[in-house]
Amino acid sequence: MKSLVLFLALFAAVAHAAESWPQFRGPNGAGLAAEDARPPVAFGPEKNIRWKTAVPRGVSSPIVWGDRVFVTGAADGAILTLALDAKDGRELWRKALPAEQVEKPHAFSSPAAATPCTDGERVYVYANSFGVVAYDFAGKELWQRPLPMQKIEYGSGNSPVLAGGKLIVLRDGTNAESHLLALDPATGATVWDSPRPFARSSHSTPMVWRHDGIEELIVKGRGRVASYDLANGETRWWVNGWGRASIATAVVGDGLLFTGSKGMGDPSEPPPPELNWEKLLAAYDANHDGILAVEEVPADLLFHIRKEIPITVMGNSIPMRNVLKSFIDGNKDGLVTKAEWDTSMTSFNSPQNSDRFVAIRPGGTGDISDTHIAWETTKGLNEMPSPLYYRGRVYVVADGGRVTAFRPATGERLLDRQSLNAPGQYVGSPIAANGFIYTVSEAGTVVVLRASDTLEIVARNPIGESVRSTPAIVGRTIYVRALERLWAFGE
Question: Which residues lie closer than 8 Å to 47 by C-beta, 6 or more apart?
C-alpha cells in the first residue's frame, strides 16, 4: 500500500508539472506550452473570457501550477505576492515582503518586475527591494533570504529560476557587487555565489542548455553571454558583445543556442539623423570652428531612441545634450571634437555595442567569440522580447510589431521584419501552443499567427489595457497580465 501511495503521489506531481507554467515564460523560459495545450486563438473582453481579477500594479508575469495562479504586484509601499484560484480567479491569499525600502525603478517598470517560480511545493519570490522569500501553497512563509538592494539602471527585472536542484538568482547591478547566486530551495542557504564584477546592469533571466549529456546555466548579461557550471558556479565559456543592458533570455533548438538583442544600432544601416556630424555642425556650431559645444545644442532637442515607435512613448527620447555629455564628449570639457565624434561612432558600431543576434554551437571553453558562432545578424532585432524557437524556426518580435523568422541551422530569413499590423512597443515575449504563436504589444493587442514559413495571422485580440509582461498558457487557458488586472481566456 505504501508503494502505491508513493506512486500515486509521484504520478500526481508529474501530471501537475506537465500542466504547469512554473516560471517566467514557462518551462526553462522557452515560451512553449505542453503539446496537448489548446488555448483559444480568438478572445478578448467580450469573447472567450473565463475570468478577470484586479491585481496590484506590476509588470511580472503570472505562473501556474495545478489549480493555483501566482502573481506579484506593488501597492502601498509593499511588494505583494498573490495566489489566485485558476478556475475562477478568486484571490486565495496575499503576502507582503518585509522590505524596509522599496526600489524606485523607471516609471515604465515596477518594483514588482521579477516573475516568481515554483516547483509545486514552494513558491519562490524575488524582489530587489528585499531578497528572496519562499511560501508554501497555503501562503505560509517557509524561509526568507534578505539581500542588499542592487543599484540597477531603470530598476531590476531578473526573475529567479530552478535549475539543477538549486534556486538561481541573477543580481547584476551598476556596481562591482554583481553576482550570480545559487540557493538551496529548501532553506535559502547559499550553495554557491559566483561574482560578476564587470556585468553591470542586466534584466535577463537565466536558462539551462542541455546537450551532450551535460547541463549548463546560460546567462545573457551586459557585455557577454556566458555559461556556468550548475554544480559550482564556475564559468565554462563566454561570447562577448552587447554593451547595453541585456533583457532577453536565450533559447535553444536544433543543437544551437540563440541569443541577442538590439544595441546601439545596426552598423549596416545609415546612422540616425540626430547623429549626423555635418548636420549638427551646420545647425549649431555658431562660431564655425568645427567644434560642437554641448551648450550650443538646444536643450529641447531630443534623440529619438526607438524609431519604430513614436518619440512621445514613455522613455523613448533623451535630450541630445545628454547624449553628447554622456557618450561622446570623451574628456568631459563640454566640447565635442571631430576626433571624439569619430571615436564614439566607431564604438557604437562595433560588435561589442551594436545590434547583434547569434547562433552558438556547443562544446566551447573559455572565450569562444571567434570560434563557435554558427551565424549572426544585425537586422530586425528585438529589444525586450526574448526569441522563440518553435517547430523548426527561430522567431524574433520587435518594436513596431515586426516579426522575423530564421532557419535555425543557417540563419536564412523565412520572414523578414513583416508587419503584424499591431504597432507600438513590445515588452512581453512571444509564446507558442498548438501550432500557433502568441505575441502581445504593450498597447494590449495579442496577435496570433500560425507557425509557418509564411506570415499567416489568424487573430488580433485587443485586450484594451497595457500589457508589459509575458502571458502564460496551461491546458485550454491563456493568462494575460495587464498592469492592474489578470485575465484568463479559454473557450
Answer: none
DSSP string, 359-423: EE-S---EE-TTTSEEEEE-SS--SSSPPEEETTEEEEEETTTEEEEE-TTT--EEEEEEE-S--
CA-to-CA distance for 147 and 390, rounded, in angstroms?
A: 37
What is d(CA 81, CA 93) in angstroms, rounded to the nearest whole number?
8
Under 8 Å between Cβ of 105 and 155? yes
**What does 11-25 look like in DSSP terms, one character per residue?**
HHHHHHHHT-B-STT
Q: Are 488 and 50 in contact (CB under 8 A)?
A: yes
pTM: 0.92
The answer to whether the beta carbons of residues 296 and 285 sit under 8 Å apart is yes
Q: Where in the chain is the domain with CATH 2.140.10.10?
A: 2-265+355-392+407-415
> Strand pairing of 366-367 and 235-240?
parallel
Residue linked to cell 489595457: 465
Angstrom distance (rounded) from CA 398 to CA 424: 9
Protein fold of 2-265+355-392+407-415 = Methanol Dehydrogenase; Chain A (2.140.10)
Walk along the chain (491 residues) in steps of 10 and give the mean pLDDT of each run. 45 53 98 97 97 97 98 94 98 90 86 96 96 97 94 88 97 86 98 88 92 96 93 96 85 97 83 86 89 90 87 87 89 91 85 89 96 95 94 96 97 97 95 98 97 97 96 98 97 88
Q: Which CATH class is domain 273-348?
A: mainly alpha
Query: Where do you find CATH 1.10.238 in the chain?
Result: 273-348
β-sheet with 78-85: strand ranges across: 63-65, 68-75, 78-85, 91-96
Cell of 414: 523565412
List for the chain the helix, strand, coil content (%; round to 5). 10, 40, 50
